[in-house]
Amino acid sequence: MNSTGREAPARSATADREIAISRGIDAPPELVFKAFTEVRHLSRWWGPEGFTTTTRAFEFRVGGVWDFVLHGPDGTDYSEWITWTEIVPPERIAMLHGEYRGDPNAFESVLTFAPDGETTRIEMLTVFPTKELRDEAIKKHGAIEAGRQTLGNLAAYVAEIVRKGVEG
Questions:
Q1: Which residues pair with residue 24 across a beta bridge?
Q2: Under a CB-based contact definition with an 8 Å cutoff, are residues 81 and 100 in contact?
Q3: Angle 141-58-89 (CA atoms, 0-180°, nearest 5)?
Q4: Crossing angle, helix 143-164 and helix 131-141, to 10 degrees?
Q5: What is the pLDDT of residue 167?
Q6: CA–CA separation, 82 and 100 (whole Å)
Q7: I need a labelling partner for 125 at 20 to 30 A (CA). Which of 54, 92, 98, 109 fits?
């Protein structure tokens, strides 16, 4: 116990390997979850600003795979591979994300979709295998800003669906 009489907040055992990003989105969790889990939506907003996505395979279920190419604005293509490890509609998704099946540098991400009045608070917690891989992702690939841009693209896409009053 510290001098204020309150215990210090618990520190996660993986804190030095984590990146946590959150954002409010003006739509109910069910719609935000749907935009995150159906390839017809996902392929239209996934990735940082200026990136596009080409899906090679998509099967949204625990153990299923999303195999895709992320096309950078400079013409660079990045092979990506995701498998879902937990799905709790419309509250939570956990996944393993790497460049290919069996990638030893793959990282885990947990997304939570929490109702906040008429909106959704989405939180994305990414845990890397090592602190060095997390630091490299931040420094070399701008992982924090890229994550913010990706959730920003999701928010803009969902806002468009809400504005049109239909499901894209």
A1: 121
A2: yes
A3: 90
A4: 70
A5: 59
A6: 8
A7: 54
Joined tokens for residue 60: 């949204």
First-last CA distance in the chain: 53
Q: Give the chain's radius of gyration (CA, Å).
A: 17
The Cα–Cα gap between 86 and 82 comes to 12
Q: What is the pLDDT of residues 101-112, one digit of tens each?
A: 999 999 999 999
- 42-52 in b/e form (b: 16+ CB < 10 A) is bbbbbbbeebe
Helices (H), 12-168: 29-37, 39-45, 131-141, 143-164
**C-alpha–C-alpha distance, residues 121 and 76, integer Å:** 32
DSSP-derived pairing of the beta strands 18-25 and 107-116: unpaired
Q: Which two tokens stand for residue 59?
A: 């099967």
Q: For residue 106, what are its two tokens?
A: 């793959």
- pLDDT at residue 165, as a whole number: 83
Residue at token pair 């996660």: 12
- Has residue 2 got a pLDDT over 60? no
Name the CA dihedral angle for 17, 99, 82, 16, rounded to a multiple of 10 degrees: 0
Average pLDDT over residues 156-161: 95
pTM: 0.88
